[in-house]
């Protein structure tokens, strides 16, 4: 059998092309079932990736807030109106290291996922509203778009981690609902700016929370509190 | 009286006021909280700046409340952080929650409050500098030496649980340099420096920062002395690399210089100019037009080396001059045979016509009806069974029809073509043919063209049959066979005879010896007494067929039984072609006892040998 014959060449080429086309739609590596040793490596990669994403999202949020404040609200005391303005404040999130170490792993992960889920809608509206603004600030808009996308990816990764670490977890779709959309669309500029300021303020805070929590969990789960 | 009381009271008050002013006691000025920092995200400290002093001891108190709470708290620790500071311990520190705090300054005269400060611990994180920076020079044996530095994270920072993440940065410089060399070290607590100046004293510092927060201050500088023998191998490597590159460049330059042209032609091959197949531009330059034309028109008749060994040389006799054999010997091909022909000089067309030996040789190869005896001792080496090739005849007839001018009834067949298997001669034949083709006469030109084409064709067929010396002989033999015992000998013409534009003439057979050898001589008009003016042959001519070839390359001719007119060959004064055959021809002539007169037939100036005479002589 002459492998270099023209009919074989054609079939090989066809096979190669079809494989390449199929490979584009291949899903990520499937999660290994159960707590096998091999799964730890995959979990490590998942956590590493999640930490990178959360770190990146907080950097973007911090920059976005700084730019907004510098441009629209600096020195005008808007921060006074941010007290108790975040929609995720009802979640029982740990506020120091001791509390974080006391919370159990499963709840911790659920908490993170709830926070992430609760931010899907606000981010979507943030992008929509900023895009619709007159003289939309490009720097802020681009960051908002990026944060929205990366948050979705982080949520997917977290759901993967949860399915690996706690496969028996029932899907809990409860999360705080954000209802600040009317505030973003208010006619009064002061009120509208205050709404945006609050939203960006809360985003900056919650992204930092998630980043910190994930780094805690990573050291706890992967490195056994020995980072 | 009342006025005295009032004035006294006013005086007293003013005095009191004056006394107070002289003492400088005022309510305190407004303090200001100017900085809050958390070194580990577990505690934090705030510092305030007191306002103007009222002259009296002032107490400061910091009060705060947190986001989501309404209860006011006071600073738990005023001491740890130093004067005018408030330190919040672990139990008082919360992340992701806004602290609203203010400082209250009070003294006897009054108190004043600072502005509220909104503080979130999340964004005030700044660690202490790293500790225990150690620097040393390491020089392993088989590797390059380097500067090795190591440090430890500041205290009170929890890295193990992941609560805190630290990133480091180091910088160093020679003692007297102005600029620092900074390197980011990430989360590692050690670093390696490779490029150093030997013999210098270096300063090294390190600092750190949280994943989201402020950089710490630089650690205290650590000094390190680089030893003088700190070898930098990089320079040695670079020097050797440079030398090697120079050598390679020299080699390349040398190679290019030597073979530059060939390389250039390899890369940029010369554009070929227009080339006509068979066209030699050099010939044009040299002025050898006959060769050029021959190449142009007769490219299908390439000469071959096979012909070089052929013995027969084409001899041409200039009819206009005296009738002495004017053998034109080309260097390449000594002619050995002589053909007895006589060409009318008046008719130029005759040169290009069938009468011309070359043309007729080609043409007459095919249509040879009239026998013509021809003797070429050298050409034929072996006898060959003649094939019956009566196919010649129809062609001959056709040829006859084509050339009515020159022959009365196929006179062409009566010519005596000499075969020259010299490649050059064959080439020249074509040349001659072509020359004739461009001759002055129109009618002969056309005929010549046809003749030339036929000649080409025949020569082509001859050539195409076989190659090599044997091929030549076989060709000659094939000529025999084709002629069917006719002996039309194809005579590739020499270039020179036609080049000189001399009238063609044929060589007479001088004599035939008992062995059948023919000695050919140019026709001598004086001897023959024939009028120079050629006359068209009266009737068809015939050729003597070669019956066999003898050992000495002697042709044995026999008369054509179908021949009507027997061409008789007349002996004539022999002019010696410088060859062996002449001697033999001499002998042959001497042996010839046949009646020349009888054998000789004058046909339009062409003398033929009567085969009957031969038979007489032979037998």
From TrEMBL, chain A:
The protein's matches in InterPro entries, at most eight in alphabetical order, are given as: 4_helix_cytokine-like_core, Somatotropin/Prolactin, Somatotropin_CS
Q: Which SUPFAM superfamilies match?
A: 4-helical cytokines
Give GO terms: molecular function aspect only. Answer: hormone activity; metal ion binding; prolactin receptor binding
Q: Which GO terms describe its cellular component?
A: extracellular space
Q: Where in the cell is it found?
A: Secreted
Query: Has the keyword Disulfide bond been applied to this entry?
Result: yes
Which coarse location class applies to the principal site listed for this UniProt protein?
Answer: secreted
**Alphabetically ordered keywords of this record:** Disulfide bond, Hormone, Lactation, Metal-binding, Secreted, Signal, Zinc
Q: From which residue to which does the signal peptide run? A: 1-28
Keyword Thylakoid on entry: no
For binding Zn(2+), which residues are annotated in this chain's numbering? 55, 211
A Gene Ontology biological process term? positive regulation of cell population proliferation
Pfam families recorded: Hormone_1
- Family membership, please give it: Belongs to the somatotropin/prolactin family.
What role does this protein play?
Prolactin acts primarily on the mammary gland by promoting lactation.
Q: What is this protein called?
A: Prolactin
Q: Which organism is it from?
A: Rhinopithecus bieti
From TrEMBL, chain B:
What's a BP term from Gene Ontology annotated to this protein?
A: positive regulation of cell population proliferation
* UniProt-listed SMART domains: FN3
Keywords on record = Disulfide bond, Glycoprotein, Membrane, Metal-binding, Receptor, Repeat, Signal, Transmembrane, Transmembrane helix, Zinc
Please state where this protein is localized.
Membrane
Segments crossing the lipid bilayer: 237-258
Q: What are the residue boundaries of the Fibronectin type-III domain, all occurrences included?
A: 129-229
Q: Which segments show compositional bias classed as Basic and acidic residues?
A: 463-485, 532-542
Q: Where is region (Disordered) located?
A: 326-378, 458-496, 517-542
Q: Which GO terms describe its molecular function?
A: cytokine binding; lipid binding; metal ion binding; peptide hormone binding; prolactin receptor activity
Recorded hits in SUPFAM superfamilies, A to Z, give:
Fibronectin type III (SSF49265)
> Chief localization class?
membrane
| Lineage: superkingdom | Eukaryota
Signal peptide residue numbers: 1-24
Q: Name one GO cellular component term.
A: external side of plasma membrane
Record note on quaternary structure: Interacts with SMARCA1. Interacts with NEK3 and VAV2 and this interaction is prolactin-dependent.
Record family assignment:
Belongs to the type I cytokine receptor family. Type 1 subfamily.
* Its job: This is a receptor for the anterior pituitary hormone prolactin.
Q: What is known of its domains?
A: The box 1 motif is required for JAK interaction and/or activation.
Q: What is this protein's name?
A: Prolactin receptor
Which species expresses this protein natively? Rhinopithecus bieti (Black snub-nosed monkey)
